[in-house]
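Attaching the record inline, Q. Sequence:
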Amino acid sequence: MRIYIGESDRWKDKLLHKALVEAMRANDIAGVTVYRGILGYGAHQRAHPDKPLSLSRDASIMLSVIDTEEKLQSFLPLVEQMVEEGMVVLSDVDIIKYSHRALDADPPKSSTGPASAQA
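Structure, as predicted:
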């Protein structure tokens, strides 16, 4: 799922992209990444350059969300409620690889000399 919104869009008292990420985490969605656009335009065809003196301060934001189709479909009503202006896209993807390390895994120990083994 991809969600396209404006940087200044809000949901209640929070920035919308932050509220969406919090809602996704609370609903156990597998993963989301928020991207801030450096240049673009939307439905109103107003340019959104990432410059300090730009007339438009509302940069484009895209949230890229990954989970099963069933999980995303069940979360969609909340997204539709929260996103008042923007675009939500659902598409099939082929996941080539998905791996992660365990959170409780110990980092590898460093050694200062050559490795030795005991039998």
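Confidence is low (pLDDT under 50) at residues 113-119. Helices lie at 16-26, 69-82.

More tomorrow.
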